[in-house]
Specification:
Blueprint (H helix, E strand, L loop, with lengths): L1 H41 L27 E7 L4 E7 L3 H6 L1 E3 L11 E5 L17 E6 L2 E13 L14 E8 L9 E9 L2
Parallel strand pairs: 2-3, 4-7
Antiparallel strand pairs: 1-2, 1-5, 3-4, 5-6, 6-8, 7-8
Length: about 200
Amino acid sequence: MRGWLSKALLLAGSAILVWCASVWASTALFEKYESWRWNARYSEAPEAFAAPVDETRLVVANAKPKPHDVIAWLDVPRLHISTAVLEGDDDLALRFGAGHIPETPLPGAAGNVAIAAHRDSFFRSLGGIEPQDRIRLRTPEGDWEYTVESTRIVRPSNLSVLANSSQPELTLVTCYPFRFVGAAPLRFVVHARRTG
């Protein structure tokens, strides 16, 4: 009986390790591939931004993106955060990058653009953000720079942080506390305003 139990536990442990490795590998490959595609397509001259999208998953801001389209690239240079922004904030979008919260304006548009990501993956170092830090949001139409104004901790039910604005703003959201084991009870919110 003891031999059977040890084999079953070994098999279960191996299956969990294989699953974790496949999740990590697929996420890393997606990030590398999308980074390469983004840089290859949008590091060209500004007139290339107006090129038709055709067979690519990258979209322009005036088109309604499909769920999980890569719609922007988010960089927080001081914290070494650089990730794709996918349309949607469901589990699949947040597995592969940051997710644009659909009820908010698209990246690059006027208003309060809201982006969420997991605290234990793409926004792992977000807790170190400070006022005056720079955030860059790259879109097919161009790059937008934001300056961090404040951070706050709120309950998940507090949706006022997503309220629209007449000013071009950016809100980043992740779970809090950062080192909490399990489903975190609060949200860490970064508020930034577009510069220039």
